[in-house]
Amino acid sequence: MAPMDGITSSPFRRVVKKCGADVVFSEMIAAEAVCYKSKKTLAMMNFHEEERPIIIQIFGNDAEKMAAAAEYIENEVQPDGIDINIGCPAKKVVAGGRGSALLLEPERAIKIVRAVRDFTKLPLSVKTRTGWDKFDIQPLAKKFERVGADALTIHGRTKKQGFKGEPDLDAIKEVKKAIKIPVIGNGGIYSVKDAKKMIKETGCDGVMAARGTLGNPWIFRSLKLNKEYKPNFEEVRDLALSHLEMSIEEFGPKKGILDMRKHYGWYFKGFDGASELRKKLVLSETVVEVKEILANMG
Ligand SMILES: Cc1cc2nc3c(=O)[nH]c(=O)nc-3n(C[C@H](O)[C@H](O)[C@H](O)COP(=O)(O)O)c2cc1C
Fold this sequence. Notes:
By secondary structure, the protein is of the alpha/beta class. It has helices at residues 10-18, 31-35, 39-44, 63-77, 91-95, 106-119, 138-146, 169-178, 192-202, 219-225, 233-251, 253-267, 274-283, 287-295, and strands spanning 24-30, 54-59, 81-86, 124-129, 151-155, 183-186, 206-208. It folds into two domains: 10-225, TIM Barrel (Alpha-Beta Barrel); 233-295, Non-ribosomal Peptide Synthetase Peptidyl Carrier Protein, Chain A (Orthogonal Bundle). The protein has a seven-stranded parallel β-sheet with strand order 1-2-3-4-5-6-7.
């Protein structure tokens, strides 16, 4: 499963693991905050053994800080790999010269990947886009490979496209042809059909789903079964409840319940009375209340 800021925290990662995801990613972690040991940032890297293999994704603009963060993460957090974010288009990230802004500073991007490579023995991947405003990532992809990246994820959209439009499968195909390390295709994976198309048309070595997992962590079961898996209401309800319990255990009752609100909207779609149910859930303030609401449905 793809890294998603504000979403791929430990509870949701455990949910998708249960549903069959092979590899999960943390939310993007600010390297600088790791360096000054921000409590909040360090807590974002907590994970449970059952989440393995788990990759911690870092972002930043300074090669030394990125390398120091990677070294700290290898020693103290001990994930299964480190990923470098060279694709995030969010304004405040780009303003700091981080994420996709590094596409405008290729030498700095290469320096960062090389520095991180020098400071960690963990598998190292880079997640990027097809380019800033046009498809031109191949030379940089080759350089990432040359300085020691072990794998590359390509989100088939430019920074300019953001999250809209069809992913450019031809671009992913070109990148796959240009480098020897594994290429993971990302963008627009909502079904088995989408994943098959991505693999067939690009020749990529794996696919990474992001928004397609929201409310549908079963997408991974579908991919394993090679046919769409449609959970019934009881299954959705039970998974949402177990997600809520993990959320509370991880974040405490207040944030745990608050954090689930967005997920209810995603989980409970398309059932009879779904919109009424979502309204009630979003207003609920205790687990007992949520359990009661859910128990009275279905
Ligand atoms: C809410 C949200 C948060 C995201 N946060 C991250 C992130 O922290 N790191 C990252 O590399 N990509 C992040 N992404 C991008 C996704 O990983 C993925 O590349 C993108 O959504 C395209 O895949 P999709 O079309 O399957 O959603 C985020 C996307 C969304 C929608």
